[in-house]
Specification:
The protein is mainly alpha-helical. The chain has nine helices and two strands, in the order H-H-H-H-E-H-H-H-E-H-H. Strands 1-2 form a two-stranded antiparallel ribbon.
Length: 298
C-alpha cells in the first residue's frame, strides 16, 4: 500500500513570518541602494570642482583654480573611504571615479599650467599639456584594468594621478606667497623653500614631463587605501602624525608641497637602487657562469 502524503497548508503564523522577512529584505535592499548614492555624490563633487578649476584657470584666477582642486582631492579621498567603509564599491563607481579623476587631476592641472607657464612656449607648451592629459588617461585605464584582473595590489603601479596633480596644485599655492602682500594671503612660510620657488617655476615644463612619465611607469608607489589612522600601532607613528598636522597648520601651503613632492620622488628613490642591485646581481651571475664554463672546458 502506498502512503499518501498530504501537503500541509502553511499556517497563518508561518505566512506572517514569510511576509515580514520579505519586507526586511526589501528595506535592506533599498538602504543599500541609498548608500551607493553617497560615494557617487562625492565623486560627482570631485568632477564639479575640476570643471570650476578649469573655468578659473581660463579667467586667470590660478589661486582659486588651485583651491578648487584641493576640494576635488578632498572629495576623491572621501568617496573611496565611504565606499570601502559601507562596502558599496561597484563597477559603476570605479568607472565614474576614473572619469572624474581625468577631469580634475588630468585636464584641470594641464589647463592651469598651460595658462600659467606653458602658453609662452608655443607648440611645445601645447605638446607638454597634451602629454600630461594623455598620460593621466593611460594611468587611469591601466588602474581599471588591474582592478578587473582580481589580483590584490599592495601598491600603486606608477604615480597616481591625484598625487601628480597634487605637486602642481601645491606649487601654485606656494608660488602665490611670493606675490605682493595685498594680493597674497598671510601664511607663514619656510624661507629656504620660498627661495627655490622661482627656480622651480622656470623648470616647471620639465617637471610636468617627468610627472607624466612617472604616471605611466612601472615604478611602485605606496598605497594608503588600507591605512587606518584609527588603529595606530606605535607611539612613534602617532607622534609623527601629530607633528605633521602641526606643521600643516603652521605652514599649510609649503608643507603640502613638500609632502606631494616627496611622495612623487619616493618611487624613484626606492626603485633606482633596486634596479642597480639587480643589474649588479645579474653581472655577478654572468661572471660566475662564465667561470664555470671555462672550468668545464679545462
Amino acid at each position: 500500500m502506498r502512503k499518501i502524503r498530504l501537503k500541509r497548508t502553511p499556517s497563518k503564523r508561518t505566512l506572517f513570518k514569510r511576509v515580514r522577512f520579505k519586507k526586511v529584505i526589501i528595506k535592506n535592499e533599498g538602504f543599500r541602494k541609498g548608500i551607493y548614492i553617497l560615494p557617487s555624490l562625492f565623486t560627482c563633487g570631485n568632477m564639479c570642482f575640476g570643471m570650476l578649476s578649469i573655468f578659473s584657470s581660463i579667467e586667470g584666477n590660478f589661486i582659486t583654480a588651485a583651491w578648487f582642486l584641493i576640494g576635488a582631492l578632498a572629495c576623491d579621498i572621501m568617496d573611496g573611504r565611504i565606499a570601502r567603509m559601507t562596502k558599496t564599491t561597484s563597477e559603476f563607481g570605479l568607472q565614474l571615479d576614473s572619469l572624474s579623476d581625468l577631469v580634475s587631476f588630468g585636464t584641470a592641472p594641464a589647463v592651469m599650467m598651460y595658462m600659467l607657464v606653458l602658453n609662452s612656449m608655443g607648440k611645445i607648451g601645447f605638446a607638454i599639456a597634451i602629454l600630461f592629459v594623455l598620460c593621466s588617461a593611460l594611468r587611469l585605464a591601466r588602474f581599471n584594468a588591474l582592478a578587473h584582473s582580481g589580483e590584490p595590489q599592495k601598491h600603486f603601479v606608477g604615480l597616481p594621478t591625484p598625487a601628480s596633480a597634487g605637486v602642481i596644485i601645491s606649487f601654485v599655492l606656494s608660488y602665490q606667497l611670493l606675490a605682493p602682500a595685498e594680493f597674497s594671503l598671510n601664511f607663514n612660510t619656510i624661507p629656504a623653500l620660498m627661495e627655490l620657488m622661482p627656480a622651480f617655476f622656470n623648470i616647471m615644463p620639465i617637471v610636468i614631463v617627468v610627472l607624466s612619465f612617472l604616471m605611466v611607469s612601472n615604478i611602485p608607489y605606496m598605497s594608503f587605501k588600507k591605512l587606518k589612522l584609527t588603529r595606530v600601532r606605535t607611539i612613534q607613528f602617532f607622534a609623527l602624525v601629530i607633528v605633521l598636522i602641526i606643521l600643516i597648520v603652521i605652514f599649510p601651503q609649503n608643507i603640502i608641497f613638500i609632502i606631494f613632492s616627496v611622495y612623487a620622488a619616493s618611487g624613484l628613490l626606492f626603485y633606482v637602487p633596486r634596479i642597480l642591485i639587480k643589474i649588479r646581481g645579474n653581472a655577478k651571475a654572468e661572471k660566475i657562469e662564465k667561470a664555470e664554463n671555462v672550468n668545464d672546458e679545462l
